[in-house]
Amino acid sequence: MNEHVTIRQPVEWEGKPIRVPAPIAMLAELTHRCPLACPYCSNPLELESVKAELSTAEWIDVFQQASAMGVLHLHLSGGEPASRRDLVELTAAAAAAGLYTNLITSGIGLTEKRIAELSDAGLDHLQLSIQGATPALADKVGGYKGGYDRKIAVAEWTHAAGIPLTVNAVCHKQNMDQIGDMLDLAVRLGARRIEIATVQFHGWADKNRAALMPTREQFLKTNAFVEEARKRLEGIIVIDYVGADHHATYPKACMGGWGRTGINITPSGKVLPCHAAETIPSLVFDNVRDRRLAEIWYEGQAFNAYRGDSWMPELCRSCDRKHIDFGGCRCQAMAMAGDAAATDPVCVRSPLRTLLMEQAEADSRAEPPPFVYRGR
Ligand code: SF4
Ligand code: FES
Questions:
Q1: Ligand 2 centroid to 161 CA: how many Å?
Q2: 120-to-7, 77, 95 alpha-carbon distances in Å
C-alpha cells in the first residue's frame, strides 16, 4: 500500500518549497489511565475516558498505516499502557506490521508472566520509569505506595526475559541529589541506557513549579556528574541527559522540529504533532477514526501550522541556529508568551528570557510546598 499523499499546501524554507519527510517514530498513548499520580505528569490536564479509547482493531489499523507510511519506531505509552488488557495483542500486531516496539511503562500492572508474553509477542525494548533511588522518595514522588519494589521486580523480569531495558529518571529539585544512586541502580538492574531528563514545566508540572524547579547549583552539579559518569561508565551504560531548560542558552529542537520526525496519537485517536500540542488553541486535530494517518501527517492543519520557516518571527527566521533548533518548542512559547509562534522564551535572544529566568530562580529557591498530585 502506498501511503504517500500529495501535499497541497507547500511547506517553505527560505522561500523555497521543501519535501516533508515521513515520520520516523510514533507515540501511541494507548490510555490515559494510570495508577501513579506524578506531580509532573505530561498528559493533558483533561484526560480522555476509557470509553473514548480506540478499540484493539482500531489501534492495529493505525499501526499498519504507520508502518506503510514509513514509521520505524513505535512507542507504546500512556498513561500506563499496561492498563490495557490487550497490550500483548497490540504488541504482537505492531511487531507483525514491522515496527520496532518500545514499551514506556511505570511497571505497575506488569507481572512476570505478562512480560514473558510481551517478549514472545515481539517486544523489542522496555523503558521503565523510576522516581527516586530509595523506596521512600520514589513512592512519595509517584504517589503510589509499594511502587519502587514493584519496579525493581519488573526490571529483573525484563532482564531475565532478555528484553533490552532503559531506565527513565525524571529529575527535579527533590530527587536531583539522588542522580548518582539512580544511575547505580540502573546499572545494577542491567539497563543498557538511562534517560535523565529534567522536568518540563508545562501541563501538570506547572502546578508544582516551586516543589520541582531545580536550583542552579543542582543543575551545575548534575552536569558535572553526568560528564564524569559518561567517561567512567563508557561501554557499560549509555547516559542520555536533558538539562533544565531555563539554564540553557538556546532551546532544544523539540520533537526534532514540528511535524518533521514524530507523530502522537491520543487514546481516542486524535493525531498530534507533540504530546502537549492541545495547549495551542488555534490548532485543529484530525482523528484516525475520520482520516487516513498519512493524509493527516502531510495535509493536517495542525501539522502544517509550524512546518518550514514561514511561520517564524523575524528573530528566528534570520537566525543561523534555526537549522539546529527549528525555533524551539511551540508549546513552551504558548505557555510563556501566550503565542505559539513566538520565539521560544528559553532562547537567550528572546525578549522574555529574563522573565523566564527570574521566575525559575524564585521557584528554585522556594521551600518546596507539598505536591499537587496528578488527579485520576
Ligand atoms: Fe533558535 Fe530562534 Fe533563538 Fe535562533 S532566535 S536560537 S532560531 S529560538
Ligand atoms: Fe509541543 Fe515542544 S512540547 S513543541
A1: 35
A2: 40, 19, 11
